[in-house]
Amino acid sequence: MRRQNEYRFSRLARETATQAGRPWAFALAAAFVLVWLISGPVFRFSDTWQLVMNTLSSIVTFLMVFLIQNAQNRDSEALQLKLDELIKSTNSPRDVIGIEEKPEPELKSVRKEVAGK
User: Based on C-alpha coordinates, what's the Rg of the chain?
Assistant: First the structure.
């Protein structure tokens, strides 16, 4: 059950992140803002009128942060796994496999070593 929920969330996150980056999503958001602006005089630019936009944009932003972060985490992990597989297939030293898991001081040390080559 838990694995199935994680799979569903992962699919939802990936699809949401993908669709949020499409031109139609921007057009929809721009249209929403335009309708909100046009409706301003009807509502006399009231506090409630402003609160509607602030509340909706805050909720959408809050939820999108988690969905997009999940999709980005999955993409980063998949990319690291692919890079590790490529490193394994070469005859070069394999001491950088899994380096993304190492603490920052160790990464700085490797960065200096690579820059010196």
Answer: 23
The total number of residues written for the chain in this structure: 117
pLDDT band at 115 (very low <50, low <70, confident <90, very high): confident
The pLDDT tens digits for 77-97 are 999 888 888 888 887 776 778
The string of DSSP codes covering 24-93 is: HHHHHHHHHHHHHHHTTTTTTT-HHHHHHHHHHHHHHHHHHHHHHHHHHHHHHHHHHHHHHHHHHHSSS-
CB atoms within 10 A of CB 102: 12
> Angle at which helices 2-20 and 47-89 pack, to 10 degrees?
110
